[in-house]
Specification:
Helices cover 20% and strands 30% of the residues. It is built from four helices and ten strands. The strands form two sheets. The protein has a five-stranded mixed β-sheet, covered by helices on one side. Belongs to the metallophosphoesterase superfamily. YfcE family. InterPro entries: Calcineurin-like_PHP_lpxH, Metallo-depent_PP-like, Phosphodiesterase_MJ0936/Vps29.
């Protein structure tokens, strides 16, 4: 199963739309996971229409309309792996231990908020993934997103992608 991981899209405040490169990934993936900060429902509607399956939560920049449609935390089992999707995880220092304690039944935690890509594994085996932002790089050199694959109850091929300049 091929996954696309997104967060912090901020459409239409930071960008009018997702980059073409990201829409092409949407077409290739079986599941799109979005870890919040949509800002408005338009992108959610577009991703829902174009994705085979969309799993998402709201973020701190999402208003009542987005929060009415999406949960603060989304939990799903994909190919035998337990995923949790949240927006915020707090400070980077001690993140692995805090999240492992908070989500002991989760195999993969997808989060956003910082716009800083993150890929680590806690001592408990919890994998923490932040895809950065495909539309607002902030202090990062590039806008980013992640892809991954699941096979046989394991996560494979986790890859951070940079948005190519057109």
């Amino acid at each position: 199963m091929r996954l696309l991981l997104l967060a912090d899209t901020h459409v239409p405040k930071r960008a009018r739309d997702l980059p073409t490169q990201v829409w092409q990934e949407v077409e290739r993936c079986d599941v799109v996971i979005h870890a919040g900060d949509w800002v408005e429902l338009g992108l959610h509607d577009a991703l829902s229409a174009r994705s085979r399956r969309l799993i998402a939560c709201w973020g701190n920049n999402d208003g009542p309309d987005v929060r009415a449609r999406l949960p603060e935390r989304a939990d799903v089992i994909l190919d035998g792996l337990r995923f949790t999707v949240v927006h915020e995880t707090g400070a980077a220092s001690g993140r692995e231990a805090r999240m492992a304690q908070r989500y002991p039944e989760t195999d993969v935690l997808v989060f956003g908020h910082s716009h800083i890509p993150w890929d680590t594994t806690a001592r408990t085996g919890l994998r923490l993934l932040n895809p950065g932002s495909p539309t607002d790089r902030r202090r990062q050199p590039f806008c980013t997103y992640m892809t991954a694959a699941t096979r046989g109850g394991a996560l494979h091929e986790v890859r951070l992608h940079q948005i190519e300049k057109n």
